[in-house]
Amino acid sequence: MANNESKPRKDLDESCVFCLIAHNRDEVTTVIKQDQELVCFSDIYPAAPHHYLVVPREHILSCRSLNRRNIDLVERMAKFGKEVLCEQGITDLKDVRLGFHQPPFISVDHLHLHVLAPASQISSYMEYKFTPGTDRFISEEFLRKRLGKVSSPAIKKF
Ligand SMILES: [Zn+2]
Ligand SMILES: [Zn+2]
């Protein structure tokens, strides 16, 4: 109980690059926007003129780790991504694509929302990675609907 320092922090995985970015411990990546819960930065392999990633500071593996209690989180991530787009000068919020990769098609094992704009300018050779409704990629909307059907694990009962 006394030795708090040796206790690994539950929300930070030292070997995870997105955790390091989310805790401002990565010197290479520029954080574009952040709040208490979320952090946004540019994708290192942009597939569109604007391509950002929104991650929670907490180390959550992927969209498969979420349940219905996390619908709000997904919603906040999407809102955050749209705010960044507006701040970056995107005015047509219909021509955007927001979504998640699904395991095993994830590059970093830390939940991240891809935010791309304009969607009509997603490069054709990278389009397959960001096509909604495939095994690889799902829209944030689709994820929220799917989570509505995933009951939360009954670990804690108050
Ligand atoms: Zn992480
Ligand atoms: Zn991804």
Automatic annotation (TrEMBL):
It catalyses: adenosine 5'-phosphoramidate + H2O = NH4(+) + AMP. SUPFAM superfamilies: HIT-like (SSF54197). Signal peptide: none annotated. Residues 17-125 form the HIT domain. It holds the Pfam family DcpS_C. A motif (Histidine triad motif) lies at residues 110-114. It comes from the Eukaryota. Belongs to the HINT family. This is HIT domain-containing protein. It comes from Xenotaenia resolanae.
